[in-house]
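in:
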């Protein structure tokens, strides 16, 4: 009578109730959002969109740098976000110097 009790998910322990919530954006979406932020940051608000692209790219990469074919948008977002942030900082430093030169 009770022989089948508890054996419903025995072969697949992660099939029910043990995985994280799937309501948030997944890694592929974060990579694409980061890449869009990085490209848009070259044209406007680089000091804001650059770090946002880096954050999205870092979160999309997870904990590994391997598997570049799956994580190409995430890696592009991280690298372009870093370049974008660096250029925005250089532009701000150049605008703060006497004479308003680039450096």
């Amino acid at each position: 009578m009770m022989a089948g009790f508890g054996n419903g998910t025995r072969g697949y322990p992660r099939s029910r109730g043990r995985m994280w919530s799937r309501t948030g954006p997944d890694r592929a979406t974060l990579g694409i959002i980061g890449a869009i932020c990085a490209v848009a940051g070259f044209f406007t608000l680089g000091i804001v969109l650059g770090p946002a692209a880096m954050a999205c790219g870092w979160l999309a990469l997870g904990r590994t740098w391997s598997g570049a074919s799956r994580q190409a948008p995430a890696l592009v977002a991280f690298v372009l976000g870093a370049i974008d942030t660096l250029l925005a900082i250089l532009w701000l430093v150049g605008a703060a110097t006497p004479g308003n030169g680039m450096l």
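note: The two ends are 82 Å apart (CA to CA).
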